[in-house]
Write a structure and sequence with these properties.
With about 170 residues, the chain is of the alpha+beta class. The protein has three helices and five strands, in the order αβββαββα. Strands 3-2-1-4-5 form a five-stranded antiparallel β-sheet. Strand 2 and strand 3 form a beta hairpin. Helix 1 runs antiparallel to helix 3.
Length: about 170
């Protein structure tokens, strides 16, 4: 019975790690594809409503400490075919976060409320827009994805070895 429990636990962890790793790699690729497609999007002038650096707490580290993380938040408006749309996306791939408030401030340096911006919008869905037609730097996401896939494959290999050793007769 303990061998079956170990087998099932390792199989469960193998699936979790593989799934998480594949999800990270696929999400990164989807964001990159969105950024690539946006190079064909038309642009329109927009007006910056606000640009500020927000702060929140990160997850706890191994010592139980939470450190602040900083992220730029922008809000803008733009018009397409006589209709006004709100926007808040700087780039593809979710919010950019920084360990240092100055880095987050540098990301939106020059973004002054009331300024006119070039807004890129999806011609098939004008409510989707972006200011920078790039996917945020995501090499860490790829590294984490590959790491989790590696862990999953190692766990899966362990499960297979356990299965083979249980199946083969001992001599």
């Amino acid at each position: 019975m303990p061998a079956l429990f170990s087998f099932l636990c390792m199989g469960f962890f193998a699936l979790i790690f593989l799934g998480l790793g594949i999800m990270l790699v696929v999400l990164n690729r989807k964001n990159q594809k969105k950024a690539d497609v946006s190079y064909s999007w038309p642009s329109t002038p927009g007006r910056l409503v606000s640009a500020e650096v927000k702060q929140s707490l990160s997850v706890e580290d191994e010592f139980g400490q939470s450190k602040p993380i900083y992220y730029p938040e922008v809000r803008y408006e733009y018009e397409v075919n006589g209709r006004t749309f709100p926007g808040k996306r700087l780039s593809f791939g979710g919010s950019e976060t920084f360990a240092n408030g100055n880095d987050a401030s540098n990301r939106i340096a020059g973004f002054e409320p009331g300024a006119v911006l070039k807004v890129y919008y999806d011609p098939n869905d004008p409510g989707k827009s972006v200011l920078d037609r790039v996917a945020k730097k995501s090499s860490l996401v790829i590294v984490m994805g590959v790491f989790f896939i590696g862990l999953g494959l190692c766990a899966l290999a362990s499960v297979l070895v356990m299965a083979v050793l249980r199946i083969l007769p001992t001599q």
